[in-house]
Amino acid sequence: MIRVTLRSLAARKLRTALTAMAIVLGVAMISGTYILTDTIDRAFGDIYRQAAEGVDVAVTPNQEVEAVEGEEGAPLDGALLERVERAPGIADARGDIFRRVTLLDNEGEPMSTGGVPTFAASVADDRFEAFEPTEGRLPAADGEVAVDKGTADKHDFRVGQTVTVAGDPGARRYRLVGIARFGTVDSLAGATVVLMNLRQAQEMTGTRGMYDSISAAAEEGTSPEEARDSVRAALRGVDVNVRTGEEQAEQETRDTQEELGFLRTALLIFGGIAVFVGAFVIANTFSITIAQRLRELALLRTLGASRRQILRAVLLEALVVGTLAALLGLAGGLLVAPGIVAAFDAVGVDLPTSDTLLLGRTIVVALVVGIGVTVVASLAPAMRATRIPPMAAMREGVGLPQRSGRVRAALATLVGLAGLALLLAGLFGGTGEGGSAGLLGAGAALMFLGVALFSPQLVRPMAWFVGRPFQALGITGRLARENATRQPGRTAATAAALMIGLALVTFLSIFAAGFRASIDDIVDRQFAGDLTVRNKDGFSTIPRGTRDAVAAVDGVGALTTVRFGGSEIDGERAFTIGVDPEGLASAYKLTWEEGDDGVMRDLGPGEAVVDESWAKGRDIEVGDTLDVRTSTNERLRLKVVGSIDEDGLLADGFIVPNRELERHWGERRDAFLFLSFADGADPAATRRAVDRVLDRDFPIVESQDREEVKDAQAGQINQVLYLFYALLALSIVVSLFGVVNTLTLSIHERIRELGMVRAIGMSRRQVRRTVRYEAAITALMGAVLGLVLGTFFAWIITRPLLDEGFTFQLPVGTMVVLVVIAALAGVVAALAPARRAARVDILRALAYE
Predict the structure, then answer these.
(1) Is the distance from CB of 285 to CB of 15 less than 8 angstroms?
(2) Using CA atoms, how far apart are residues 700 and 695, in angstroms rounded to an integer?
(3) 3-state SS of the chain: helix, strand, coil percent to 5?
């Protein structure tokens, strides 16, 4: 039987290849994800180990509370350096700065407006320095900088030219005196690094007299562990981390791996979706091929093969196909990994990489997924094939036994209801973020499966509906519609594979449209000022000098700022918003649950205003006291003096004055600046004056009016949406292989029919047109199912968000485009099968057995 099975595969090379490709793409995505993230992890690990060379002891801030996006945390008190130097066993010590700034390119534009940021790093010619110049030298005097070699090569910087760096005091011009490598690499995992002397680095980052880390070297004869313990004793009572250089490198590697864990999870989800779709394609393909080989299998039974042997033969075929798919997918992963990097780079996210890393775990996962999914998908059709009596199967026209429509509908209903129950449990069960995501994913998968099981009952009415326009095109359209309904189970399985990808695309489109509409509504309702000033990248803070520079512009009236910080309350992360209490009401419209604008104006130390929905979920009321742990590990007790009904910028947390956020959270930079024009000022002239100041002194900052704020937010949403579209396109491509498979295999069993219609006068063009129309009708069925299911998912998942101000909105234009694209994709997938059908020899087809 093994020889028979292998010969059967060899004799049907096209079918084997098409079946394998359905799973290859999903395995390629999964293996490519592991290859990429493992490579990134190693890139960072190498960097941290190189940075630790020559460092026996590292002292860093102890930031146990997770920071918010754009927050860098409080630096170390500069006085600690002297205490480290005096510790027994320490020969030398140095304080360093490594914080965000912005380097402008040769055209005067900020080089990084997304992805990996630009850092200012202090350097000195000593034993701790990891940067080595490849051209010129390291900076020593004020007015001098160097840049990493990767940045210099990418942006054509040359030693001796003048470059502009923007930081807290504004934009400053420096002479480029050197280009340097970090150990053996050209850049810090893709980041841009501007090297300065310590004093300039502290000035540009607003950290005068402070350090981000302290490095120490042990005296001869003192081990790193002994030096670490000595420094710990010298800094007893100070909340800092003291580690050996090796321990610090390991900790930073673990921290980076944890921070990038979301990337691996997200990419694996999309790979899993492609594999899930591939399982539908494989199951459908095996069902068709086994149905076409019933007489062959029956002949084997009459020659003595048992049911178990037939089952083993089919599973062996699946094993071979799955192994082939897994190996090809693993090889494809080596190509997918750089493709993912390119996709992220297209939306402004620069992922660091090094030499490609292929671990044994990746090989095992690829083989398990590829082989396991293929074998499981083939199991049901294989079992059904063994139930055909040998003599019955020898007769022409006998097919695989099918479940009755009622049984199938009942099973589909049970599976769909189970999926819906899991969806609702994920939305309202309160199982935490990880548990909720798992329940939502499992619920969606079961609902997809339920709809797929029920879809054969929908084929005839749906074919009548979507096939009407094709039928109007003549006899070819009518034949295409009838062909689509001839095997409802087959057509439904093909459409269901396409349904999954289109349902997810529809869900994302609706969610993004609702998010954009919600932001527009929030801006219109709550933005009371004339302009907002923010970082061009949309998430980083703005330099500290921005507020004073803008306030000095003629025509600028009221001005207020907002900051963000990270906190913990009872072990749970809490979002902290810092505001200027006296000026907030002039720029932002607050809706009060308890209190009024006077409460905000009088907000002082030890007090907080909470978002009502956030507080309600934690049983917090006005008059209660919050036990807060800040991102600098301070413990505070804040009295709740008011609550607001907020669904915008100030939602989902508690509000304190900015001066308190700076004092206890160490957050000195503003996230946003809101301003209103003075009475009688010319709005256009004042806006131009503000923009001139920003362009001259703070080129990484821009002003926006209400419509520009909306457009900027929409642009950021669209960037993420397009990235998701690109990742979901993989599952749609897999489903199109299902269309190709179905048409190719159905043409094989319809050779007589094709010969007959050709004999009675149908032209080759009409045959090609019929096959293309059939593919378009099948694709449109999948599109309709996908649109309906995706809309349902969006509707049910956004229910809890309606109270938070989310606006449910259907992007009708996008949905129409999806339907058109689905039909065109079906036609493209049918090109090769249609040409094959048109080339059928009439006489051989009529004589076909």
Answers:
(1) yes
(2) 8
(3) 60, 15, 25
How many Cβ atoms from other residues are within 10 Å of residue 760's Cβ? 7
Look at the alpha carbons of 536, 538, 544, 547 in this order and tell me if their dihedral is positive or negative: positive
Task: Give the whole-angstrom CA distance, residue 181 versus residue 150.
Answer: 8
The token duo for 93 is: 């010590």
More confident residue, 72 or 514: 514
∠ CA 171-201-232 to the nearest 5 degrees?
A: 150
Largest CA distance in the chain: 102
Round to whole Å and give the CA distance between 74 and 668: 9
What's the pTM? 0.76
Other CB atoms within 10 Å distance of the CB of residue 803: 10
CA-wise closest residue to 167 among 583, 668, 664:
668
Closest Cα partner for 492 from 769, 738, 822? 738
In this structure, the number of other CB atoms found within 10 A of the CB of residue 239 comes to 12
Whether residue 525 contacts residue 438, with contact meaning beta carbons closer than 8 Å, is answered with no
Query: Are β-strands 57-61 and 192-196 bridged in parallel, bridged antiparallel, or unpaired?
Result: unpaired
Distance (Å, rounded) from C-alpha 534 to C-alpha 712? 11
What does DSSP assign to residue 65?
Answer: S
Q: Judge contact between 214 and 206, C-beta under 8 A.
A: no
Name the strand (E) or helix (H) holding 573: strand 572-579
Which of these, 561, 563, 559, 545, lies nearest to 666 by C-alpha position? Answer: 563
Q: Measured between alpha carbons, how far is 732 from 116 in angstroms, rounded to an integer?
A: 31
Q: Is residue 519 packed enough to be buried (19+ CB in 10 Å), middle (13-18) or exposed (0-12)?
A: buried
Contact predicate 15/320, CB 8 Å: no
For the stretch 92-128, pLDDT in tens is: 999 999 998 889 888 888 875 445 678 999 998 778 8
**What CA–CA distance (Å, rounded) separates 525 from 484?**
52
Contact present, 59 and 76 (Cβ < 8 Å): yes
Kindly report each contact of residues 519-523 with a partner whose C-beta sits within 8 Å and lies 24 or more positions away, as own/partner.
519/710, 519/713, 519/714, 520/710, 521/805, 521/807, 522/647, 522/648, 522/649, 522/805, 523/648, 523/706, 523/709, 523/710
Cα 447 to Cα 424: distance, rounded to the nearest angstrom: 12
Please give the radius of gyration of the chain, using alpha carbons only, rounded to the nearest integer.
33
With tokens 């775990």, the residue in question is 361
- Tokens in use for 53? 């060379």
Rounded (10°) angle between helices 475-486 and 764-797: 60
Q: Structure tokens of 814?
A: 């996008």
Q: What is the average per-residue pLDDT within 59-65?
A: 83
- For 223-280, the pLDDT digits (tens) are 999 999 999 999 998 889 999 988 988 888 888 777 777 777 877 888 888 888 878 7
Burial per residue of 49-76, b for 16 or more beta-carbon CB atoms within 10 angstroms, e otherwise? bbbbeebbbbbbbebebebbebbbbbbb
Hey, what are 713's tokens? 């937010």
What Å distances lie between residue 329 and 22, 267, 322, 826, CA to CA? Answer: 10, 15, 10, 24
Residue in the structure block whose two tokens are 């005839």: 460
Q: What is the pLDDT of residue 113?
A: 44
Query: Can you tell me whether residue 305 is helix, strand or coil?
Result: coil
By three-state DSSP, how is residue 358 classified?
A: coil
Contact call for residues 230 and 18 (beta carbons, < 8 A): no
Identify whether the C-beta of residue 489 lies closer than 8 Å to the C-beta of residue 742.
no
Q: Which two tokens stand for residue 848?
A: 């076909």
- Between vectors from CA 71 to CA 70 and to CA 77, what angle results, nearest 5°? 145
Considering only CA atoms, which of 230, 221, 231, 228 is closest in space to residue 245? 228
DSSP 582-634: TTHHHHB---EEE--HHHHHT--TTEEEEEHHHHHTTT--TT-EEEEEETT--
Return the SS3 of 217.
strand
The rounded distance, in Å, linking the Cα atoms of 674 and 684 is 17
CA 103/CA 112 separation, integer angstroms: 8
